[in-house]
Amino acid sequence: MNSHRCSSPEETISFGRSVGASLTAGDIVSLEGSLGAGKTTMAKGIIEALGVAETVTSPTFTIISEYSGRLPVYHMDLYRIEDEEELIHLGIDEIIYAGGISIIEWIDRLPELPSRYLRVLLEVVQPSGDRLVTVETIEGPSPS
C-alpha cells in the first residue's frame, strides 16, 4: 500500500501520471472516493501517462469514454448504473477483459469484482481540502 498527499488538482494529475506509467495491458484501476473527491482528476493523469492527447472529461453521463494511447483506454463511471442488465447491455465484461486499460469509477456497481485490480482511494482531508491518495493491489478469487 502506498499513500500520497496531494494539495492541488495539478498534484493529483501528477500523481495519476505516476500510477499510469506503471500500467500494462489488461490492468484494471478502480478509482474510489466520494463525489468530488478527485476521481476524474486522477483519471486525467493516468490517461495522460498512457499517451492519450485528447481532453479527458468525466464519463458520468456517457458511462464509458474510450481513448487511444499506447494501449486502448476505457474510462468508466458506473455511478448511474441501476442494474446488472445495463452492464450487460454496455458490454462491460467484454471491455474490461479486452486487453486494454480499464479505469473504473464506482467499481462496486459491478455484480462481481475482478480477481485483480489496482485500487486508488481518494479521501478529502479536512480542513485543508487536500487529497490523501492510497494505492493498493487487490487480489481475490477469480470471477466465475
Distance between the termini: 27 Å
In total, the number of strands is 7
Please state the overall shape, judged from the principal axes of the Cα atoms: globular
Percentage of residues in helical conformation:
25-40%
Share in β-strands = 25-35%
Work out the radius of gyration: 14 Å
Count of the separate structural domains: 1
Secondary-structure content class: alpha/beta
Organism: Marispirochaeta aestuarii
Keywords: ATP-binding, Cytoplasm, Magnesium, Metal-binding, Nucleotide-binding, Transferase, tRNA processing
Pfam families: TsaE
InterPro entries: P-loop_NTPase, T6A_TsaE
Summarize it.
This protein has 144 residues and is of the alpha/beta class.
Report on this model:
The protein has 144 residues and is an alpha/beta fold. The chain has one domain (3-139): P-loop containing nucleotide triphosphate hydrolases (Rossmann fold). Helix content is 25%, strand content 32%. It contains 4 helices and 7 strands, in the order βαβαββααβββ. Strands 1-7-6-2-5-4-3 form a 7-stranded mixed β-sheet, covered by helices on one side. Helix 1 (9-21) packs across helix 2 (39-49). The mean pLDDT is 93.
For the structure shown, list the relevant keywords:
single chain; 144 residues; alpha/beta; Rossmann fold; seven-stranded mixed beta sheet; 32% strand; nucleotide-binding; tRNA processing; metal-binding
List the helices and strands and how they pair.
Layout: E1 2-6, H1 9-21, E2 28-32, H2 39-49, E3 64-68, E4 72-77, H3 84-90, H4 92-96, E5 101-105, E6 116-125, E7 130-139
Parallel strand pairs: 2-5, 2-6, 4-5
Antiparallel strand pairs: 1-7, 3-4, 6-7
Helix pairs in contact: 1-2
